[in-house]
């Protein structure tokens, strides 16, 4: 089934509620977006996580940490090191 959606001036797109419910998206969920033969393919990020689960070893220092917190820590460390070279 097709749904009509509008791209805003900020290139944002609201996913129609019918599709959102069908694929199990909730507010704040992350999605993966890719282009394939001129079409946008949007899928919930958790599906990729489920597909690769177990194939990546989590460093001991990151176990039990919220993924957003782990990303924030990694960025802080990365940019701290970048400033050391100025």
Map the helices and strands.
Layout: H1 17-23, E1 31-36, E2 39-44, H2 45-52, H3 67-83
Antiparallel strand pairs: 1-2
Q: Detail the poorly predicted runs.
A: none
How far apart the termini lie comes to 55 Å
Rg calc: 18 Å
The helix tally amounts to 3
Which structural class do the helices and strands define?
Answer: alpha+beta
Question: Major sheet, described briefly?
Answer: 2 strands, antiparallel
CATH-defined architecture of the largest domain: Ribbon
**CATH C-level class of the largest domain:** Mainly Beta
The outline comes out as: extended
CATH topology of the largest domain, by name, is Pemi-like Protein 1, Chain: D
- How many domain regions? 2
What is the string of helix and strand elements?
HEEHH
Strand content: 5-15%
Mean pLDDT: 83
> Number of DSSP strands?
2
If strands are numbered along the chain, what order do they take across the biggest sheet? 1-2
Helix content: 25-40%
């Amino acid at each position: 089934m097709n749904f009509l959606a509008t791209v805003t001036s900020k290139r944002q797109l609201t996913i129609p509620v019918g599709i959102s419910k069908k694929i199990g998206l909730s507010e704040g969920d992350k999605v993966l977006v890719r282009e394939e033969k001129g079409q946008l393919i949007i899928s919930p990020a958790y599906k990729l996580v489920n597909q690769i689960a177990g194939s990546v070893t989590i460093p001991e220092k990151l176990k039990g940490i919220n993924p957003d917190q782990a990303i924030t820590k990694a960025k802080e460390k990365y940019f701290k090191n970048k400033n050391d070279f100025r």
